[in-house]
Structures are given as structure tokens and as C-alpha cells.
Write a structure and sequence with these properties.
alpha/beta, five-stranded mixed sheet, Transcription Regulator spoIIAA, about 110 residues, 4 helices
Length: about 110
């Protein structure tokens, strides 16, 4: 189960996720990200600091949104992946296209 907030700022939208992002959460995540990509302007940052687990279905949902954002001439990146979430992004190869600032990708837990 994931929870999310979508605060808008002057430079775009931040999607702040928390919880477990797995197959059970995929549909909800895809819906949230699709709505943000369709309805907002500017850059989109998916903040993963509160995510405790991320599997390939969650990565797939984020990559799908990233692709749609690029198709619309926009940028979608992730920030603050920590611990096992960061490792999962790196092992999958998705970190190279999604992680905005590798300096903020902490090796341990964020909290």
C-alpha cells in the first residue's frame, strides 16, 4: 500500500510517495502519475524518500510515466531513493534515466 501527496511548486510538481511500491500498488501509482503528467505543467519529481520497498512493477509504472512526460516535452525524474530502493533502481538500470541527483541517493535508510 502506498500513500502519496502531490504538492505543486513554482518549478513543477513533486509526487511524494511513501510505503511499499509493488504489484499491489502498481495500478494506483500508474493512475496518480498519469494524472500528474496529463494535468500539470513543468518538471515532475517523484520523491522516493518514504518508499521502503520498490519492485519491477513500481519501476515500470515510473518509467511509463517518464516516457509519457518526455513525449509531451516534459521531464520526470526521481529523487531521494534510499537503501534497497536505490539499489533496486541501480540494479535494474533505471537509475541512469530516472535519478535526478545521484548525490541525494543515500546508501542507507533516509529516515
Amino acid at each position: 500500500m502506498i500513500s502519496y501527496q502531490v504538492p505543486e511548486g513554482p518549478d513543477g510538481v513533486r509526487v511524494v510517495l511513501s510505503g511499499v511500491v509493488d504489484l499491489a500498488a502498481r495500478a494506483q501509482l500508474r493512475k496518480v502519475l498519469a494524472r500528474v503528467v496529463a494535468d500539470s505543467a513543468g518538471a515532475i519529481v517523484v520523491d522516493l524518500a518514504g518508499v521502503t520497498f520498490l519492485d519491477c512493477s513500481g519501476i515500470g509504472a515510473i518509467v511509463t510515466a517518464h516516457t509519457e512526460a518526455r513525449r509531451r516535452g516534459r521531464v520526470l525524474t526521481v529523487s531521494r531513493p534510499c537503501g534497497v530502493v536505490r539499489q533496486t533502481l541501480e540494479l535494474s538500470g533505471a537509475a541512469t534515466i530516472l535519478v535526478r541527483d545521484h548525490a541525494t541517493a543515500a546508501p542507507g535508510p533516509c529516515r
